[in-house]
Every structure is written in structure tokens, then in C-alpha cells.
Amino acid sequence: MKKSILYNLIGLLVFFVACNPIENRDKLGDITPASEFEYSITQDPQRDYIVYLENKTPKVLFSWDYAWGLTTRQKDTVHILVPGKYTIKITATTAGGIVFDEREIVVTMQDPDAFPEPEWEMLTNFAEGKSWSWDLSLEGAAGNGGYKGCTAPCWWVLDAAALEEQGVLNDYMIFDLNGGKHLTLVSESKPKAGETKGTFNLDMDNKIEGWSVGTLTTQNVTVPFGWDPNKDDLPFYRYDVLKITESELHLSASQPNTGDWGEAWFYMFAPKK
Asked: Which of 18, 82, 143, 243 falls between 20 and 30 A from 120, CA-CA?
């Protein structure tokens, strides 16, 4: 009986503690509107791809998104890698909450240290972008062959008619460096009809002597027909660059740990007309 009374008293105590807060929470302060922000965004007059950011607003913290990166420093110097029109997006933390602002700048000069290899311009035409479609002047624009043995499709060779059967004849892709390393796949049906957007990187130091000249990696998007038909259409996101010029882009993809003369897939592209 005494234990029952004790348990009831403990239960009542827990109930009252739970229903009565033991702390006084401070109220949020006032929101500082963007019209009261004090900051500067200036460009180096000799090298306008160098941008100086400075927040002078009291008790407000800035985060700056400058397309090629993000910084939370209140005073910073950043580089815009490719000429073009950019919007510097500001996320400000004020006493009363988050406030957004933005400022537009125009960069007319190329950062010489950003993309020193000429293949970047060959592939993308920098901020303007460059479209690549199948090179139908070749005997086969896609297909499979031997890894590190072939430099073009040499087993199953797909011409225009075969590409049409696969539903990829009119597919193409667009590389651009307009505020990022963007890759857009435009397809009729696979993996979906319309545009699929992602990003890419080009590494001209990662190559296989005597076979490839670099490596192309993609994220969230593939090249046209960029999947393995013999592996339930498993997508490829890494491609060996076999050749890249102003007018030719030859790629190969294979499953991890593929040995010499194992199955590889080949993709032969030319600038879209």
C-alpha cells in the first residue's frame, strides 16, 4: 500500500515537472532587412575574375555563393574561373532569422590557372558550352570491343540504324563551364525523355599509356547510351578518354577490374551540327 502511494506521488511529480518548463527561452531578435545590409563586392580592375567580398553589417553573418564555390568568411577573396554573367547569392543570418540578397557581376577575363589544359576548351567551349552527338561518318559510332585492345567498337558495331533500334540515335550531350562543370544529356527515351542534368570532371593526368589520354567522370548523368546492356543497363560514370580534339571525342567505359581484352564499350562523338 505504501509502495502504491509512493509510486503515485512520483507520477504526480513527473507530471508537474513535464508540464512546467524549467528554462526561460530567449525570444528571437529583430530581422535585419537586406536594405540595411552593409557589404561590398568589388573586382580587381586588372584581373576582373578576382572578386573581393566583405560584409560590414553589425551582428549579421554572411554566407556567399559565387557559383564556383561557397565561403562563410566575412572578408574573402575568390576567383571566378570562367568569363560570364554571375549572381553572387548571399545568405545572411540575422538575430531574427535568415535573409537573402544577391548582386550581379560580369567577368570578362579568363583565370589562366583555372583550366590550363587545352582539352577543357575543346570539350566545353568554356561558358558558352558545346554539344556533342554521334559521329555517323564512322563505320560504328558505338558498340563494344576489347578493353585496352580496341580504340573503337570492334565486336558489336552500331551504325545509325542500330542506334535507332536502341532508341539513342538522336541523343546528344552538352558540356559547359557556365558557373560550374555542367553536363546535360538530351535523350529521346533513356534514361528518360528530355534533359538529364549533372556535373563532370576532366582529368588529363589519369591516363593509360598507349591507350587513353585522360579520364572523364560524371555525376548524376551519363553520356548517350552510357550504360552496360549486358549488366541490366547499369550506368557508367567513368570514361577513359581515347581521343579529344576540336572535332572528335572518343570515349570508352568498362566495369571495374576489367582485364586486358575484357569487354569495354566505345562512344564516338563529333560536334553537333
From this structure: 143
